[in-house]
Every structure is written in structure tokens, then in C-alpha cells.
Amino acid sequence: MTNDTFGHEAGDALIRAVASRISASLSPDVTFRTGGDEFTTVLQDRNALQDLYRTAQIVLDALSEPVHTAGHTVIPRITIGGAVLAPQESNPETVRRNADFALYHAKETQRGGFVRYWPGLEHAWLCVATRSAT
Predict the structure, then answer these.
(1) Which of 20, 58, 68, 133 is the least crowded, having the fewest Cβ atoms under 10 Å away?
(2) 94-97 contacts, C-beta under 8 A, 24 or more apart
(3) How far is the C-alpha of 114 from the C-alpha of 126, rounded, in Å?
(4) Burial class of residue 82 in the structure, from the number of CB atoms within 10 Å of its CB (0-12 exposed, 13-18 middle, 19+ buried)
(5) Which residues of the chain carry a pLDDT beneath 70?
(6) What is the spatial distance between Cα 120 and Cα 33, in angstroms, rounded to a whole number?
(7) Does residue 105 contact residue 121 with C-beta atoms inside 8 Å?
(8) Which helix (H) or strand (E) holds 50?
(9) Phi, psi dihedrals of residue 118, rounded to the nearest 5°
């Protein structure tokens, strides 16, 4: 939307600013841009993992300040989905998939907030997405 309104230069600068703020707020954990306007952070800090709601709030707070770019002021809005690799789980792909389900559910139900994955969420998300499509 920023690209359409203010141009690609402003959109690219906004993405860089958001990436920098997420990365700084969750350091030393590493943040990756996984596509378009989506980012993934692999949390390893025990405190961050034990309270994902607090960790998500740290990121939301880091992005609450406006970004000044290309002569425009933009207040970034983000939606966060999160998941933790369960002790009995050995496949990191599962936690990525679960985080995706949480993100999609958050985008449908809590834009601008955080949803943590829980078992069965993928079914709840599909129900919400189906209702939204009709």
C-alpha cells in the first residue's frame, strides 16, 4: 500500500526501517525478511520464548514510532504470528508452519496484534478464512 501511495522508494525505505527496528528489538536473535513485507525471527533467548506475548509487545512498541521517508511520514502497522517448537517436536519446519497459521489467523482476527499458535489453530484459521471469503 505504501508503494501505491508514496512510491517504491518510500516503500523500500519503510521495509528497511521496519527490518532494522525488529532486528534491534530482538537482538541478538536473528531476523530474516521472508518475502514482501513478511519477516521471521528465530528466537533462542529463553526469556523471549517463555513469554511470547511480552516479546511480541516489544516488537509492536519498537514499531509504534513513525518512519520518515522520502518526504513522507508513515506509522508502520504489523501483525505477528508466533509458535514455539514443542519439546517432543524435532522438525523445525513444523514450527514455521505453525507460526504461519498463527500469522494468517492474526491477520483475519487481530490485525495489528499478536496470535500465538495453539494446537487446532489451523482448523480455526480455515473456518475464519472460509467465512471471510463468502
Answers:
(1) 133
(2) 96/40
(3) 18
(4) buried
(5) 1, 3, 124-134
(6) 27
(7) yes
(8) helix 46-50
(9) -135, 155
Report the alpha-carbon distance of residue 6 to residue 72 in Å, rounded.
8
Radius of gyration of the chain (CA): 16
Strand partners, 116: 82
Strands 114-116, 80-82: pairing is parallel
pLDDT for 126 = 57
Q: Measured between alpha carbons, how far is 123 from 98 in angstroms, rounded to an integer? A: 11
Following DSSP, what letter does each residue of 33-49 receive, concatenated? EEETTEEEEE---HHHH
Give the span between the Cα atoms of 125 and 25, in whole angstroms. Answer: 28
CA 122 to chain centre: 17
| Angle in degrees, 0-180, between the axes of helices 8-26 and 52-62, rounded to the nearest 10 | 140
pTM greater than 0.90: no
Q: Say how many C-beta atoms besides its own lie within 10 A of residue 126's C-beta.
A: 13
